[in-house]
Structure formats: structure tokens, C-alpha cells
């Protein structure tokens, strides 16, 4: 709720810039609660929000219904959704590239 209010683009009529700043600061503190969270947790909350924003609507809705608490959980849920729509049960492993073999060095025969 506080996140939505923080992200709202409307300014109440008659609110001066200082009041807008203080209102936003209060909403930020209620949303993020910086005194209770580390910088890493705050960053993950922002990344989670942006990750959800870039998802197509149907996937976003499904992922949000599962209420992920962190970005990586949202990414895993997204992959589950994609796999289920493809009929796959397991995520497809990333392609493996052949290892480049360097020149073979052999010991020189002694005299």
C-alpha cells in the first residue's frame, strides 16, 4: 500500500514542494522501513519491484499471486510459469559450450 502511494504521480492540491517531499519521505520509510532492513534487502525490494514491472501481464499476475518475498524467488516462479506453459517439468539447463583445448604439451625425450 505504501509503495503504491509512494509511486503515485499525483500531488494533492495545495501541497507545497516541502510538504510533498516530507510526505514522500514518510511513505518511503513506511514502505522500505530502512531501520529494519539492510541495504541489500532494500535493494532487493527495489529490484523485485522492477522485475515484476517488466514481466508480461499474465506472468506478472501469476507471480504476484504467489507473493515472492525476494527477486530471485520471483525469477524462479517466472521460470516455473514459462515451463508449465511449455509442458516442461524441469527448467532447461543452459547450453554447454565445448571447452577450448589448448595445444598439447608433451615432455621432450631426454638425450
TrEMBL record:
Please list where the region (Disordered) is annotated.
Answer: 84-111
Where in this chain does the record put each SCAN box domain? 3-79
Q: Which Gene3D superfamilies match?
A: DNA breaking-rejoining enzymes
**PROSITE patterns assigned:** SCAN_BOX
Q: InterPro entries attached here?
A: SCAN_dom, SCAN_sf
Highest taxon of the lineage: Eukaryota
Q: Which Pfam families match?
A: SCAN (PF02023)
TM region(s), chain numbering: none
Query: What is this protein's name?
Result: SCAN box domain-containing protein
Question: Whose protein is this, by species?
Answer: Knipowitschia caucasica
Amino acid at each position: 500500500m505504501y509503495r503504491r502511494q509512494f509511486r503515485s504521480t499525483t500531488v494533492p492540491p495545495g501541497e507545497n514542494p516541502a510538504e510533498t517531499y516530507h510526505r514522500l519521505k514518510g511513505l518511503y520509510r513506511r514502505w522500505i522501513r530502512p531501520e529494519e532492513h539492510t541495504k541489500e534487502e532494500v535493494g532487493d525490494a527495489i529490484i523485485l519491484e522492477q522485475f515484476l514491472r517488466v514481466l508480461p501481464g499474465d506472468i506478472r499476475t501469476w507471480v504476484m499471486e504467489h507473493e515472492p518475498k525476494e527477486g530471485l524467488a520471483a525469477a524462479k516462479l517466472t521460470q516455473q510459469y514459462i515451463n508449465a506453459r511449455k509442458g516442461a517439468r524441469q527448467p532447461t539447463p543452459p547450453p554447454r559450450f565445448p571447452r577450448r583445448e589448448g595445444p598439447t604439451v608433451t615432455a621432450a625425450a631426454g638425450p
